[in-house]
Design a protein that fits this description.
11 helices, single chain, mainly alpha
């Protein structure tokens, strides 16, 4: 967190500006040519997807770099030899990445609120989705940072796997707009369930049942938490 606030332009301003550009391009330029989706104007419809895009990508990026650099520099052995549990180490790294991603998500929501008239359908559930998503993807980034051997592998998962899945998971459209065979294929995209549930908290309707979405994010977080615990128990790529 200290590193985050030492470089606010890179850590906070840059991702927020990128998201605002998405909002301008998709909302203003394309929104005027697209009819409403499920009775919701297009510039409003893309807000949940933009927030999820920011939170997911930033969570993975923050957590992966946060653990990779101590590994790369060799300073990871200091917390590993300290009298603290592996849970405390995991929560320290993952908690910092989660906090930063939540801050970015809140800023993006605040900016969008000044541009588009937003009325939340389920604000408490929205907050829960936001926290669980930031936490789950920070765990994913944490694991990627431990697994990566070099900077190329560090960027492999976000660029070639995560980003395409997010964009194809209904961030900027409803799967009902797709041809039937593409819609069926999209159901195998795990990002669909997370993004769809978050949309429900805004509009009260979604492509997938909100209960399935909640179950998906809970299973996602629990599985990654157990995997992170296994890494520290076995010392996978942490011990020489």
């Amino acid at each position: 967190m200290s590193r985050t606030f030492r470089s606010p332009l890179q850590s906070i301003a840059s991702p927020v500006v990128s998201t605002i550009l998405y909002l301008i391009v998709f909302g203003a330029a394309i929104g005027g040519r697209v009819d409403s989706i499920d009775g919701v104007s297009y510039d409003l419809y893309i807000i949940p997807g933009l927030i999820m895009l920011t939170v997911m990508t930033q969570s993975v990026s923050n957590a992966s770099f946060g653990i990779y650099f101590p590994k790369y520099l060799g300073t990871i052995y200091e917390p590993l030899s300290a009298p603290i549990s592996h849970w405390e180490i995991i929560m320290g790294y993952v908690g910092a990445a989660t906090t930063k991603s939540l801050l970015l998500g809140i800023i993006v929501f605040g900016v969008a609120y000044t541009v588009v008239d937003i009325e939340l359908f389920a604000p408490v559930t929205m907050a829960a989705f936001l926290v669980l998503t930031a936490f789950g993807f920070s765990l994913l980034g944490f694991i990627v940072g431990i697994w990566a051997k070099n900077f190329e592998q560090l960027s492999l998962v976000p660029l070639l796997i995560l980003n395409p899945l997010i964009f194809l998971g209904g961030s900027f459209y409803s799967i009902e707009m797709l041809p039937s065979h593409f819609g069926a294929l999209t159901m195998f995209n795990p990002m669909l369930y997370l993004i769809s549930g978050f949309k429900w908290t805004f509009f009260g309707n979604s492509d997938v049942s909100v209960f399935i979405s909640l179950a998906a994010i809970i299973v996602f977080c629990t599985s990654l938490l157990m995997l992170a615990r296994w890494i520290f128990i076995t010392g996978y790529k942490l011990r020489p």
